[in-house]
Design goal:
The protein is α/β, with parallel strands linked by helices. Helix content is 21%, strand content 31%.
Amino acid sequence: MRVVIGVVAGLALSGCLVGDAPPPSSSPPARSDAAPDVLGRGIEGLQAYGQDHLDEFGGLYVDPPGGQHVVMLFTENLDEHALAVETILPGTTLRQVEHTEAELTRLLESLDFDALASQGVELVTASVDVIGNRVTLEAKSNDITAEARLELAYGGLLDVTIFPVPGAWRNVAEGDGWRLLATGESRTDAYVVRAATDEAAYGRLWDAAGIGGDAPAVDLATEAVVSFAHGIGSGCPEVRLDGVHIADGIVWSITSDPLEPRGCTADLAGAAVFVVAIAHEAVPDGFTLWLNEYAAGRGGEFSAPVMVDIGS
């Protein structure tokens, strides 16, 4: 498992906001037309000002994401801070909060994740939510008291979300018009679909899948063989096949993470491969093969399709 710890805020000019921001303490500000470099320098100045007032500074964020309006948070003395902030970046809004960013960061750093694990609480993510002015923690546990117990222990500073621990799982083996032939991992074939309608093409598909062993027997007079190669990271190689979509001459795989939620690495370590037989009678006029619904919706930008003619 990979634990993700950090600070959540709409600070970067292209950053994202998490959750609904409470209303600002003053009326909505006029839109700033500051150029990005001017805004960037202004944010740097605001951050420096915040560091000089850590005993009252609650953090800052850009609202909306990618916009040019900055919200700065303080626990006290908003009028005094407003005068200084206006000289650094005019149009910045101030909002009063309960806790300083330093206080929240100290709490985050004090959490004993090994102790939580020993209590059956498996951490997924932990971060400072600047906008919500809380530390947020997501974890998995079958202890129904864990969420309330942890929140009460930290007096409202900690917002906890507990998910049940996933149980045993397995791939769906068949459905209308299809059956699962084999699964495995490929080191080279990520985000690729393949199809075979004759023995030679089936051999190439099987070799590319990298599963090893003998290819399962298929009557290619009544079935076509396809493979779906879903990219995986080194930290989360598990992918579950939940079904195969077959409709209007379109075929794609339906998959999920059987162990979610969890923090996964962004590296590409290979592919989870599913080799599937598609019945001719389910696609009598042939079909277009896509990796998944997302790929189909992006029109091939994400993963190129394969056009399959099953013949007469």
